[in-house]
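For reproducibility, we list the full input for the nicotinamide-adenine-dinucleotide complex.
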Amino acid sequence: MTSKIFDSLKLRAHKNRFENASVRIKKLKTLQSWIKNHESDIEAALYADFKKPAFEAQVTEILFTLSEVKFFIQNLSCWMKDKRVNTPLSLFGHKSYVHYENKGVVLLVSPWNYPFMLTVAPLIAAVAAGNTVVIKPSELTPHVSQLLEKMIKDCFDADDVTLEQGDKEKTTELLGYHFDHVFFTGSTSVGKIVAKSCAERLIPYTLELGGKSPAIIDANANIEEAVRKIQWGKFANRGQACVAPDTLFVHKKIKSAFLAAYKKYDESLKSETPSDIISARHSERLKNLTNNQVDLKSSNTALIDLDDVTQFPKIQEEEIFGPIATVSEFESIEDIRPFYEKNKNPLALYVFSKNTDFIDQVIRNFPSGGVGINTLVVHLANHNLPFGGVGNSGQGRYHGHFGFLEFSHQRAVLKQWGFNFLLEILFPPYTTRKKQAIDWMKKFLT
Ligand code: NAD
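The corresponding predicted structure, in tokenized form, follows.
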């Protein structure tokens, strides 16, 4: 990207600050229509890149994105309005409000696993908040990246949203510009590189990262239901999802029944065609994690029983990100703590149980970005919930209003409308009467 392009994005971001809601809604509607008119192109690009089944492309990439854009179109006018807040008695004579202002030029760096949805969902929020945007999609999904480039050219002015193709060198080049916000979705290791680069120039950033998300299955859980949901979490997108269950803790009393039910159910679904593992590097990584003992060509998913197998040390440390999960048994939640201490703050935590005390104990003991109780992965589909990590799994949040706020500067405004005799007390000379007045105020205000 040239400095000239960046300067034009800066200038446009300034102009966008004066836009009203209808202008931004028009942009979102253009994007919405484009997606609706190109559904089959999106499906085809996802298939060409890693054989994502059309059904999954519809549900996880198109449906999610379309419902997000609709939610923004319906709510943006309300979100953009200045928000009146109370004014304390000490500031009598003033009114207070929060004014939502764009941040400026935003960089969006996206990953390959949901290459359409994870680019367009933050784009919707960034545009709705009035920012201009530079997108750097993943180099591992070239067909989708090409289609995204066309979408951006068709829907936006070049000085409003632009897309830069490339790999990590391109991200490094882009990070050389003084963006006003960087929104990164990807691995924790690259997240650290992005955070370091932003910190040097105090650029605010959002990190949407991954981690080893545990699923804890209590003795009284409905086994069939837990099996179906967990198998889906490992099957969909070949388990290459940031919120896929990574490590299962199954209560000792039901572990063998759970493993038997999982195997039976998983094998019954053999005919379904799953997505590919994205690249040879990732296949190799998964082979190494499992000492080559999992057939990655099969459409099945695999559970590795860590209570039987101890020779896979790396699988307990690295995010698996594939159609494999490990299983360990537990009797009390203290048995889970050593794992948690090594893999703190995952993006998601799942608990399957009928016991509310147990659920409460799990949630309080093991912080995570989000939680699914007797449910899995779909917590991210509620626009009214924030989506984001904590600590190792990231910082910041988006989806719905949370996305609008993430990409906005929430500016505090205090406006005087009348005489404020209390404020007069602050100004010199500091007389005895004023000191007495302050003492009086302390009685009432503190
Ligand atoms: P990645 O970190 O390898 O790549 C993400 C982006 O960063 C890509 O655009 C890539 O080109 C760029 N990049 C890669 N290496 C870089 C470097 N050294 N310097 C600068 N830029 C670099 O991640 P990925 O393999 O594309 O995605 C998988 C990871 O993303 C997993 O860890 C997963 O958990 C995480 N993820 C998180 C979420 C979320 O919403 N929290 C969603 C999807 C994926």
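The chain has two domains: 3-209+396-409, 214-388. The longest strand covers residues 94-102. Both points were considered when choosing residues for closer inspection.
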